[in-house]
TrEMBL record, chains A, B, C:
CDD domains: A4_beta-galactosidase_middle_domain (cd03143). GO terms for cellular component: beta-galactosidase complex. This is Beta-galactosidase. Zn(2+) binds at C115, C155, C157, C160. The lineage of its organism: Bacteria, Bacillati, Bacillota, Bacilli, Bacillales. It comes from Paenibacillus kyungheensis. Its EC number is 3.2.1.23. Substrate binds at R111, N149, W315.
């Protein structure tokens, strides 16, 4: 479990008493108790308070804060305060300020505002992390160390440019290798000196969000930028670890956050934590997928839900209230997908600046007589009852979806064949086919071990990095079912095309050759015409966006196109490979097609749902020590009944209501326990 | 009246003979006479002509112009020529050039191009105003002094940054006070030195039009920028006044122009003047509202319509012709709302540059045989007949709508709860309910005296400045009816939330507590379900955008929500307060609801329309010395008949057509006079 | 013909073996042979390879390349490699880097990246052209010299600013003349020193794509920018000619490419070449028009189709495949309109960077067993059969459409009356009326000789340059039919309005006076009501966008408006002028109206289609030595039959299939020959 000091699901969140007077703080402590809150994340944005100038540090306020919380039974998640540099630092050392993609030197302001390659920033952020570690290393209140906050953004300053060249030298060793990787002979961009290389920005090779002349260069910049921030994180991490070797260190991630390769980051984190901010119109399946990604980057380990809002956000276009029950529902959804904490941003709502309309446990009115507080306190009480029951339980899955940041960057930086292709949308489409049936899915990276899975899905596996094709062949050879789609197997890790016929390194495994890929206008559609029934799958389905024109080389054709000059050509193929099968879906099919096909391949492998539930009711399972915990999450605005089919269960939150048929209220959550053998 | 020299509605407009040769000018003088034109605004953009270098000034051309006009019976509105600096000045003193919000130093070009804190600009603009005053102080042609032109825009240069710090020191005295006002402890932005403060721009705290991290800082920048330009105006004003103490000085405003706080500006202006440029699709009620604002900022004093186009504009996307009759109709609409002049931009149409397709009295064809000229001349003739009849008459109103620039800025810089909320739209919605019934409205500021009104409407009174709540309580206590809406009473003058429960300082007056505010997606609607009939108001109405969830604390509930989890909660309340009533409308209701409710509250106070008229026919009233002037303005494309109900009238423009029933032609205007006692 | 060395339609395209190894190059040579390819454009982007630093040049690779191609029977179109400067040059001489319209100095990257007024760029681009000329002057493989590539873009650096002032001094001689031309007295922009003039950019007079405060200045910048690039071209041209006097020199143009005045460029080019990239949804009539423009800028001379894609593009939003047959169809469409070459970008598809998804003859798979290769080879074979049959044949037309870059720039930089007016759209509307009937059209410039035409159409002839009105009067006087439209005759060459009544210099010819021009909102429409039938034209037609309100001065009224306050005013007039007629269309009519009217005026002059064909089947004619070549191009997805009406023909590509009725397959092309007398 995260901390033996607090053997339960942590319940609390960000707390910024530096914005308030002492009396308010005392009231807060009472209210926290009332709400069952037992952890507070503090010191997130206090750098200017901690270090008022270059020489002096003042932590007395923090001592008092941590002590007063601890005396009230509240543990501390201690942030390092480096998420926004002080104004004096920006004035004295402008190198801490970023230069944006348009080449504009920023002035002091905002957050995520420090250049990751600023010598000043690196020096002082490490220094303060070190001082915090020294000061609080023995404090019994500290359960987690929280480095910076929501790393993100990018920088194009001269320091970054120089650091990029160093990063490139390390990667490529020689300019020849670099010139080859980037294909610089195209447009005569050959570099004869490392110092001729400039950052790819809106002033050089890029324009807008995802347009570049040189994909290889831009891809390396994305890697470099992610690595630069990771180095900043690592410097603070090391500073803490050198003082507190057993510190549990994290930084809060943001789900599908494109700029940072979280698979790489996860390796340097003791525990994953993340901030979950769905909107009123975010599909619940998308939230579920994001949780699974956050679990997947650290091999299935339980993670921290570091932030969610008790009700409203402020930065969306339309910041709706969370309907009654939804905060609890989405909290348990997080737990169902692997969270071992439920934490909020924030505990008390700010009175000024841009987040003053962001929801909080304690609203501006300042007392507990609010719907939001009551819902928070009710959940707090429930979590105290649960104790350590769920902690450290894990999710078992036979299905893996492959996700890769490099692939994401590369697909969306591509010039052609279509601007309509969005990687995460494709991942979500396939994920949803399992989610809707309560089949749990692991999201895995290209370095992950696949041997425990029956089914591996890799939508739009455009980039096949060294070794991946072998691993997928091995997986299939051994009996696994592999599924991939159109626009796969096109390039290697530098975005250079795998010559000799698409899908390149996957060609043998899939038993096909893709000759051409048609890009359809948004108004155009084609059809997937099934050659035979596959389970529920029969007849015609719509497809569009991209249509591969392929020839089989050993694979079996299961469906063909219904229209256009490639009418009759294969659109769905299956290749027997060793003991397994490799499927190829040549176009972007409609939801019913994907759902039907995924059901077919899952059925083939005997993969069963956690439970069959009515539409809109999610069922998830966590497992520990021969016991399973089944979560029934009713996302509907009406109650629903779930049949348990002879499963003998205990209703953990409501022991009096059990039986073979469980009614889950509108937006309600039920947790059942039962014996389990996998 | 504006000038005893010209005791009638001034008729004329901008004239730029420096673009033309002498012969054209002589032709113009003839045509002006033919059109009944008696005033010309000159010297608006002649700085480069007046001052060809740093040392020399040349006004001889202006002498001749003013004289030749005067000899033709045309008075002068004399501009100071500082609305665009000369090219030589930009080259020699780059400090006159602005830096834009993206940090880009401008080059010479455009107009509104001078940095308001440029020492060079301030020195030379004052100097030329002074020289003009000296030269023309005794000239009998001058009736109005016109400082610069349409002040606007903003600047982010180093001079402005330094001036901002000085402005802040004056406002806050201490950094502690400033840090508190801006809540800088949020995100650790604490300032330890005034010089650490940078302007809020796209390089620091802001992005786009209305997004900022620190509302308090951005609000202060808006105030500072408005004040900086006001100082420039004031410098020229003082330069003129010190030479010509009885000069009548103005600068032309632009109605709902967001960057400048015209209530503050009006205090420094001898008379208000403004430029009215509705498009073909601008609601006539919106134009009426803008006139009322321009009258309201100077306590109801008559104002100058300084500019309108005789027909077309050039800067709109689609520059439609004014249909026959519309120029006259909209001219009289201005007069009906308080204008004592009717002036055009411009008298002769330019041959080159960006305004060459802007309409003018004299078109490119150069003669009088055009529809536009004929309509202009007909109105000129009519105005001569009217003489001083209408001058100095005033509008009497029992209804005030509160408008506040600070509130405008603050609402639209807010991060959350919705991007759909636009302050002026809300003002217009409530205004229209009165406009459509011919009930005249004063638009007043938060410093205005409210004691003369029966009804005060303050839509979205988000910011309640010190003293305002007391004033509104006093107003209601004494028997007035006060109406406000959702998202009111939230913050104080620094955009810091009024803690302890919304609507903050208005809570006692309104007798309610707003617990939460839901923001609806654009596709979502709720209903206002009336608990009882209120006049014509009964049954259900649509509402949306924002929905306050409120609890009454003494107020009576008159309608409740029809949908969502807050179905049944109050959406319309009325609180008896002293001798008066305070109403609260908790959501954005549809037009029929607002119309019905405003009729109900007006009826309660016995507030009567000027006249009942058919739809699309506006009726307005001005009053002087026991006489009333009733304007019937038919905005329809068909004739309409207005019943006068025993009112004994004189038809001022068409004495032969009178009676108890007046037919107003399509797009026609009628002015009636009758005895009056208020 | 282009070259006596290769007396046939050149077949080949861009080839970049510097991106490939030697073995691949050898395979390419085999594949080229297989595909009937006989020309390769090389050295387009090889500057960095040719000149690795400031001192050294290395052309050995190019020697080998040209030789190996030549040994395989492939001629060379030799580019000068200056289309993108080397990275080392950007680093050492930043003056080669452009400054963009926002004032941002570019860093190294992209192509079209050299400042046209950079001394370094001019020096080294001339130097390398010179060295190439010296090295290859006697090489038998070279058939065409290709300077740079697709000139375009703009620059706003200090070097350009200084050069602009020099350009202006040359044009205007005195500042007085310039101040008058630009009407700088408007907004007081009078210049007293040439050095006060700054470039019109987003930092001075412009914003966005087509907005400016001073049209005259912006228009001159457009001319200057086009001229600056033309000077760069000319420097390389002269460098080659001084060494190789009989060199055939071109640069590849881009059809309706707004930044460059191709009529002016054409004068400096030995042969026109251009790159044709229609999308799946580009109207075929638009492609036809672009070909006719490219033929028209050089007085009807045959041109080179320098680039087209064999199948896909990469830079469009949706890069569809060219359907089977379409590549051949569009190739022959080019020939039908005057092309004497069919060339591709490119011969082998790149493996990396932004064009790797741009189609090529040899796809990534690297062999010939692809649909694209087969279609390419089939056409190659066909072209060998055709030999020199078609070469140097010309198009004869009795109809000219006037096109003018200055007019294009001026119309779209106009502030008012509507943003909806797009010049090329209007040109295309009128062109299409002839295209759909297989009446061939010449696109001519304002300097062209019109005497050979029966019919001259000048849609939206907004700018009438000196001498043009006289020429049009002369043309009509002599019996020609002249047609123009709304918003014509408004300004002269400096965008100064022709005073005294629109349409200015065209007023006499057209016999009308336009008093006003109404701009309609996008939702508004009016009607053209025919006063009498004109051929098929009768009844009512829709019109909109702009509506001129005009009075006849001798012209006959043939149709009137059906709506609005100008209902009944003329909308279509015809003025008899000498032996001819001048027509005026006062509003933007619907397609059926334009089609009917153009048919009527063509019928009047006895202008006949090449052939009558079913809808979607284009018929074109080229003529040489008493023989005509008729192209039947079926753009439909179904076969169509064309009746030849007693014409005795030879089917050139399929001699066995001939007769009086020719079936053209879906997307098929047929070329017939027959005797001809014009």
């Amino acid at each position: 479990m995260i901390s033996s000091k607090l053997p339960k699901i942590f319940y609390g969140g960000d707390y910024n008493p530096e914005q308030w007077d002492q009396q308010t703080h005392q009231e807060d402590l009472q209210l926290f108790k009332q709400a069952g809150i037992d952890i507070a994340t503090v010191n997130v944005f206090s750098w200017a308070r901690n270090q008022p100038d270059e020489v002096h540090y003042q932590f007395e306020w923090l001592d008092e804060l941590i002590n007063s919380l601890y005396e009230s039974g509240i543990y501390t998640c201690l942030a390092t305060s480096t998420a926004a540099h002080p104004a004096w630092m920006a004035k004295k050392y402008p190198d801490v300020l970023r230069t944006d993609k348009d080449g504009r030197k920023r002035k002091f302001g905002g957050r995520h505002n420090s250049c990751p390659n600023s010598p000043t920033y690196r020096k002082y952020s490490t220094e303060i992390a070190s001082r915090l570690a020294e000061r609080y290393k023995d404090h019994p209140a500290i359960v987690v160390w929280h480095v910076s906050n929501e790393y993100g953004g990018d920088c194009y300053c001269d320091n970054c440019e120089r650091a990029f060249r160093v990063w490139l030298k390390t990667r490529y060793q020689t300019l020849d290798a670099l010139n080859t990787a980037w294909n610089t002979s195209f447009w005569g961009h050959t570099f004869y000196d490392w110092d001729e290389i400039v950052l790819p920005s809106n002033l050089s090779e890029e324009w807008g969000d995802d347009n570049t002349n040189f994909q290889g260069m831009s891809l390396d910049y994305s890697r470099f930028n992610s690595d630069s921030m990771l180095e900043c994180y690592q410097l603070e991490y090391d500073a803490i670890k050198s003082v507190v070797p057993d510190a549990l260190i994290t930084t809060n991630l943001m789900g599908f956050f494109k700029p940072l390769d979280y698979f790489k980051w996860a390796k340097q984190m003791d525990i994953i934590s993340w901030d979950n901010y769905p909107g009123l119109d975010t599909p619940v399946s998308y939230t579920a997928l994001a949780h699974d990604l956050m679990r997947g980057i650290k091999n299935g380990d339980p993670f921290m839900l570091m932030e969610q809002t008790p009700s409203q956000q402020n930065w969306q276009a339309y910041n709706s209230l969370k309907r009654p029950g939804v905060m609890r529902l989405w909290s348990y959804q997080a737990v169902a997908h692997g969270a071992d904490t439920i934490m909020f941003f924030q505990l008390r709502r700010s009175a000024g600046a841009c987040e003053k309309f962001h929801g909080a446990v304690i609203e501006h009115v300042g007392h507990s007589n609010t719907r939001v507080f009551r819902e928070t306190a009710a959940l707090g009480s429930e979590l105290q009852t649960l104790g350590d029951t769920l902690l450290d339980s894990r999710i078992e899955s036979k299905v893996a979806i492959l996700f890769d940041w490099d692939n994401w960057w590369a697909i969306e930086k591509s010039s052609g064949p279509t601007i309509a292709l969005k990687y995460v949308d494709q991942i979500h489409k396939y994920y949803k086919a399992f989610y809707n049936r309560n089949i749990q899915v692991d999201v895995v990276g290209v370095d992950s071990d696949l041997s425990a899975y029956e089914l591996v899905i890799a939508p739009v596996l455009y980039m096949v990095k060294p070794g991946l094709a072998d691993k997928l062949e091995q997986f299939t050879q051994n009996g696994g079912t592999f599924v991939t789609t159109f626009f796969s197997g096109i390039v290697g890790e530098s975005d250079l095309v795998a010559l000799g016929g698409y899908p390149g390194e996957l060609r043998k495994l899939l038993g096909i050759w893709v000759e051409e890929t048609d890009a359809l206008l948004p108004t155009m559609r084609n059809q997937i015409v099934m050659n035979q029934s596959l389970g529920d799958l029969s007849g015609d389905y719509e497809c569009g966006m991209l249509c591969d024109l392929l020839h089989t080389e050993g694979a079996e054709v299961l469906a063909h196109y219904g229209d256009d000059f490639y009418k009759g050509m294969p659109v769905l193929t299956r290749n027997t490979y060793g003991k397994g099968e490799a499927w190829y879906i040549a176009s972007d099919g409609e939801e019913a097609f994907i759902a039907g096909l995924m059901k077919f391949v899952a059925d083939q492998k005997g993969i069963q749902p956690v439970l069959d539930t009515p539409a809109g009711v999610e069922a998830g399972r966590r497992v520990k020590n021969g016991e399973q915990f089944i979560f029934l999450l009713n996302h509907n605005a009406e109650a629903a009944t779930v049949e348990l089919n002879d499963l003998q269960v205990t209703n953990l939150l409501d022991p009096d209501h059990t039986g073979q048929s469980i009614e889950v209220p509108a937006r309600g959550s039920v947790i059942l326990s039962a014996p389990y053998s996998s």
